[in-house]
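Example 5.3 — 3-phosphoshikimate 1-carboxyvinyltransferase
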Amino acid sequence: MNVTLTPSRVAGTVRAPPSKSYTHRSILAAGYSGEATVRDALWSADTQATARAVELFGGDIDRRDDGTLEIDGFDGRPAVPADVIDCANSGTTMRLVTAAAALADGTTVLTGDESLRSRPQGPLLEALADLGAEAESTRRNGQAPLVVTGPLTGGTVSIPGDVSSQYITALLMAGAVTDEGIAIDLETDLKSAPYVDITLEVLADFGVDARKTDDGFAVDGGQSYAPAGGEYAVPGDFSSISYPLAAGAIAAAEDETVRIEGAHPSAQGDSAIVEIVERMGADVDWDRDTGTIDVSGASLEGIEVDVEDTPDLLPTIATLGAVADGDTLVTNAEHVRYKETDRVSAMAEELGKMGVETTEERDSLTIHGSASELEGATVSGRDDHRIIMALALAGLVADGETTIKGADHVDVSFPGFFDMLEELGVALERRE
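Solution (predicted structure tokens):
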């Protein structure tokens, strides 16, 4: 699907979609349990990949009309799947499920689409091998397809922290049901640390004790997954909140606001987007008690933003920088290159088609707002949901129409994204 946007002013109230990060973890945590109910789950392409994996491991998932998931789990010991686990485009699914596969008493094969088959899995495979499982890349390059044979028993393992925090999440979730537990020593500083905080929060809500240590993280073995009252509710997603928040900051109608509901505080590092937009000069009011954010437009100024812990915000920040006066410098960004696409280069190149001047370094991206003149253009979404949504924001204020090719990939995390823009008053046209 291609989407063409006409420059528009926005106003109104929207609700944040549920968190993708929390949904992935809660579906798998419920899979590790005997049974659990997950409420307010995000049902997107990525989270459905995790749900399919849980079912291949022997669980059963019933999705009710209100979106609630009733999950009969595999009770800590996944069965050997009868088929290959296709993780599609979901890196979170692949990493979390790879560790779960190492618990099965047999062999599991995991693969994904072309993009996912280019993403690094080597450190996780090495860690699982050190813990007693057999784990290898069929092409011996640390990338999917992966073949994992268990069961692993647990122990102590060292792993780099600067490639993906999802490795740590995967090991902690699996470690709770091993005999020995797992202690993780970090070889480097941890990037995207708030995502591990999310994991610790979800584990605690499912009755599992995992903790930070002097050297990294640890989880005791022999534990059971069981949320209080048998239920878990997924909070709103701040990665997705970044888009209506930025839309209000750059395109709110005069004397109007964009209100975002469902923005309750949590461990999500991407809640930093509220402060970032405010620092750039927008008028932002976040009522944490009610979970509402009101934002109105203003003249934005470029700032410096460190995305070490918030890599998913880089595309949104790049678009904000394209509209702002002065330079916006995004630092500590090298790990953002290992997402669905190289998001540093993707934003530089696609915004460049729209007249935006940027300077790209290996670990940073500078957007020269004052030297840029946003113009409508035909751009590629790069099969990446966050690139698509960030470019759509740019289309709100570009001079002329902006067409985004391959825009249907927003289904990965925000299936109703373009519906939301229309609710806010954006003029757009979809073409298959």
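Remark. The chain has two domains: 2-17+236-431, 20-233.
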